[in-house]
Amino acid sequence: MVLRAGVIGLGTMGRHHVRVLRTMDGIDFVGVADPSGDPHGAAQGGRVFISDEQLIEAGLDMAVLSAPTEHHEQVAMRLAEAGIPTLVEKPLAHTLDAATRITEAFEAAGLVGAVGHIERFNPALQAMRTKLEDGLLGELYQIATRRQGPFPVRIMDVGVILDLATHDVDLTAWVGGSSVAAISARTAHKTGRPHEDLVAATGVLADGTVTNHLVNWLSPYKEREIAALGEAGALIADTVTADLTFHANGSEVNEWEELTRFRGVSEGDVIRYSIPKPEPLMTEMLAFRDAVLGEPADIVTMRDGLAAVRVAEAMRLSASEGVTSYLEDDEPTTA
Fold first, then answer.
1. What is the pLDDT averaged over residues 140-162?
2. Does residue 39 fall inside a structural domain?
3. Using DSSP, how many helices (H) and how many strands (E) does the chain show?
4. Per-residue pLDDT band at 255 (split at 50, 70, 90)
5. What domain count does the chain have?
6. How high is the pLDDT of residue 279?
7. DSSP β-bridge partners for residue 236
8. Do 135 and 211 belong together in one domain?
9. Which of 6, 35, 96, 159 is deepest in the core (most CB within 10 A)?
10. Which 3 state secondary structure label does DSSP give 258?
């Protein structure tokens, strides 16, 4: 079966979605919708519509919604009403209430709904999750992430928590196999915008794994790293290079007494794994296509996307009130 597909929103991610959809098997690329038209020529043969309503009327079997986050709810609701399975670029919505309404609308309509948490499809993180599930580290102690780089002028409607930290809270729960139970965050505003541009957060998963995240738009260098520490050593994933490295605890007795006291756990072998490295966006879109076709597929569901927005809301609540936020209920609470 060939699926008629379209993309709404032609920002950076929207243009990448068009590129991938145009090369996928089983996809008939219908066109794009953006009120600014297609100044970059991304459609490349597909039709260009000024509104999402026009694209919907052209007839779609699946859609990608990559408009600015503040418009996600209104457009997603129209797609749900039209019965079109949709992948919404992350974050799912600009508020927890909006994300909840989108999720419930797609579930009520019985539609496949996904969220573009593309980092889950990074080869290094997929390999990390598999090795953790296989017990490589034994008991998991901590998951730490660092996501920082220069300010992206293209992001104007949300702060660094919704735009970037949602990646990390989603990945931490997914890699660790446990939901976020509590989180404490502090933010900074340094670029003169109403939204935060730096957040540092510490939390805990439901299984007791400690988490911490450093995320900002203020660094002159780009860093994308997630490290998992356990009783047998540490796994470090660099999602820029898609490399995964294992640092094993040493098994040799260190005879240098002073060095042993300083280092604690001794150093063991260091292994950088050789892993296949397909493009994450292609992997993500193939999974979404298969889900729309009713085939088994590992997509990031709207419930998953809703959970990430809930943690983001908890981070903002924690930062504004200077307390820890707890996520035992649907709404984040503080102690």
1. 86
2. yes
3. 10, 16
4. low
5. 2
6. 97
7. 227, 245
8. yes
9. 6
10. helix
Q: The domain containing residue 88 runs over which residues?
A: 3-119+281-299
Is residue 263 over pLDDT 60? no
The token pair at 36 is: 């600014």
Establish how many alpha carbons lie within 13 A of residue 83's alpha carbon, considering only the half-sphere containing its beta carbon: 2
Give pLDDT tens digits for 29-51: 999 999 999 998 989 888 999 99
For residue 307, give the nearest of 122, 64, 109, 92 by alpha carbon.
92
CATH number at residue 58: 3.40.50.720
User: Distance between CA atoms of 137 and 165, rounded to whole angstroms?
Assistant: 25
Q: Which residues contact 286 (CB under 8 A, 6 or more apart)?
A: 24
**Whether the predicted pLDDT of 329 surpasses 60:** yes
State the Rg of the chain over Cα: 21
Cα–Cα distance measured from residue 212 to residue 215, given in angstroms and rounded to the nearest whole number: 10
Domain harbouring 148, CATH code = 3.30.360.10
Check whether residue 113 and residue 126 sit in a common domain. no
286 and 269 inside one domain: no
Torsion of CA 314, 318, 321, 324, to 10 degrees: 110
pLDDT at residue 167, rounded to an integer: 95
Per-chain mean pLDDT for the chain: 93
Instruction: Mark whether 72 and 162 lie in a shared domain.
Output: no
214 shares a domain with 87: no
Whole-model pTM?
0.91
Share of the chain above pLDDT 70, in %: 93
- Give the pairing of strands 233-238 and 223-230: antiparallel
Over residues 17-34, the mean pLDDT reads 96
CB 254 within 8 A of CB 179: no
The answer to whether residue 42 is domain-embedded is yes
Strand 210-216 relative to strand 140-148: parallel, antiparallel, unpaired? parallel
Position 292 in a domain: yes
Tell how far CA 29 is from the center of its chain.
Answer: 25
List pLDDT tens digits, range 83-115.
999 999 999 999 999 999 999 999 999 999 999
Is residue 90 located within the same domain as residue 239? no
